[in-house]
């Protein structure tokens, strides 16, 4: 791993340089096409969060621009894994897939394999791949993804493995090609990195320090997305609530939301992830007053025990979290609240766990992502002695899951029979006669329809609640 390459180029100059590499790579690809007598294919596999999903759209945008055609599986001329390392098993999945790829590559020696994303920011991982997976052509990290075209050229010109991992970066490079997964909605990065260093989390070590994009660049991107048919955006950041702090002219997330809300043609604004310690009154007011902001907030709790929250370095306690929820509900009574909860954090006692259960019962979450603590090498928590007995963790996990699911189902039931606005998102995977869409509160609805409805809004009666999702019927166009 090395310090980032301060090549003295501005963001705009770097964009120009990368387009030159795209042109160069195009020539290599068309040469290979002539040799093989067919188009070259590519496959981008994304592991992990929505930030990674957005990065993969950028990787695919560059691959398409260069001339690769996307395929549905790993039997492709170019395969790239955009990895995650937030939990131990994420790493194991990648090693497993690489094993499969090595056999396929033996039969297709011209095939190229690349790895990027958070897992590649861990030096011991890169060493393992250098030693045990020598057939990998290219490895890069989270800070130099904008150099993908340049790195591809270097890899196409070399017979040995290209490894380029940066410790950090100062640059945000705009306007590179992107291939969106959905025509009508898009993730939009507003910031990168995290400064919070929660004691169990590997993200600050692999995504670096917080860097916010200029509001004008974000607005310009969203305006061009809307012009291209997008009606919903998801503003992305590890902690969007601390957006703008490192800008030359600081702008708060609340101010950014108000600006995005002014964009003509945009219908829905979603955002994630919010850290409770930075949830300001201003932001709650902006969420209330901005008509396009969806009625959903994901507000990770992690634990209900103030004692554990301190050891987790979360910078809020149980009472402060509950006070925030109270403020949110007073301002936006029909807001849906979801959260993340870790069970089995080192030293967690029965009493700590009961504090978590108490918060769940008080807040009544619409849904919750519950995780068993995963030791991440390099984090302070990984070095903590009092790791909890796995059977005890499992027992607690099952109790919590049952509680969360009962509350979710009860809350979902409350909307049964209501007519609500739904954005049609895709054809139902199990039943092609159904369309799957989402309410403003992020709940899923399946209703009879046809693919031409995708990307449009409809007023749908929620005829039946099926636990966490609804069946419905269209009442009228929204
Ligand atoms: S806020 Fe905490 S949990 Fe979230 S990415 Fe940052 S360090 Fe990790």
Structure write-up:
- Helices cover 37% and strands 21% of the residues.
- The protein is of the alpha/beta class and 478 residues long.
- Helix 5 links the parallel strand 5 and strand 6 (162-164).
- Helix 12 packs parallel to helix 13.
- The protein starts with 10 loop residues before the first helix and ends with a strand.
The total strand number stands at: 19
Secondary structure: helix percent? 25-40%
Low-confidence stretches: none
Ligands bound, unique: iron/sulfur cluster
Summarize this entry quickly.
Helix content is 37%, strand content 21%. With 478 residues, it is α/β, with parallel strands linked by helices.
Descriptors for this entry?
13 helices; binds iron/sulfur cluster; five-stranded mixed beta barrel; 478 residues; alpha/beta; six-stranded parallel beta sheet; 19 strands
List the helices and strands and how they pair.
Blueprint: H1 11-36, E1 41-46, H2 50-66, E2 69-70, E3 78-83, H3 88-107, E4 112-117, H4 123-132, E5 138-140, H5 148-156, E6 162-164, E7 185-189, E8 191-192, H6 203-207, E9 211-212, H7 215-227, E10 232-236, H8 253-261, E11 268-272, H9 281-289, E12 296-298, H10 306-311, H11 318-331, E13 336-343, H12 350-363, E14 367-372, H13 390-413, E15 419-427, E16 434-438, E17 444-448, E18 457-466, E19 469-477
Parallel strand pairs: 1-2, 1-3, 3-4, 4-5, 5-6, 7-10, 10-11, 12-13, 13-14, 17-19
Antiparallel strand pairs: 8-9, 15-16, 15-18, 16-17, 18-19
Helix pairs in contact: 1-5, 8-9, 12-13
Bound molecules: iron/sulfur cluster (SF4).
